[in-house]
Specification:
The chain contains seven helices and four strands, in the order ββββααααααα. It has 157 residues and is mainly alpha-helical. The strands form two sheets. Strands 1-2 form a two-stranded antiparallel ribbon. The chain has a two-stranded antiparallel ribbon with strand order 3-4. Strand 1 and strand 2 form a beta hairpin. The longest helix is centred in the middle third of the chain and has 18 residues.
């Protein structure tokens, strides 16, 4: 994507549904289809891109009737900050994420009925965010693959 005055930057993704697969707790990168996310953070544009994407993503999520109810009462500034740190780590950037693992973080939402259709809606909103930011399709596919690695943990399976 291009950001006025900043040169080329790329984007990351954001969502309340933040889970950390056991292999992504900071000791090694996510594995994606035999590859790794090493470089994905930079390919997406680093911190500026992740920040922009998370902000746009949450605007979409909060307008999405399929999933907005899961964010009622959530401090969205804190949520966005956690999501930015998580995505930075998940995409191979600096690991400053100190939040809960995905299973624990989403357990209350699972009790509220969080299921695959909601997870799919989040991924859809993320993809729409990245398209809006003009992220190339091959990078969107990598981001979606990273998101998919969290599905079972986010849904408590």
């Amino acid at each position: 994507m291009h950001v006025k005055g900043s040169g080329r930057i790329r984007s990351g993704f954001d969502m309340q549904l933040v889970l950390i697969p056991s292999h992504a707790r900071g000791d090694r990168p996510f594995e994606i289809l035999g590859d790794t996310t090493m470089g994905l953070y930079e390919d997406l544009g680093g911190a500026a891109a992740v920040d922009a994407a998370v902000d746009i993503f949450y605007r979409k999520v909060l307008k999405d009737n399929r999933i907005s109810r899961f964010f009622v009462g959530v401090d969205m500034a804190k949520q966005a900050a956690k999501q930015k740190a998580f995505l930075t780590m998940a995409f191979g950037g600096p690991n400053n994420y100190t939040g809960l693992d995905m299973r624990k973080a989403h357990a209350p939402l699972v009790k509220q009925g969080l299921n695959d259709s909601h997870f799919n809606a989040v991924v859809e909103d993320l993809g729409a965010t990245l398209k809006e930011l003009k992220v190339p399709d091959h990078l969107i596919a990598k981001v979606a693959a990273v998101a998919e690695t969290t599905r079972n943990d986010v849904l408590g399976r």
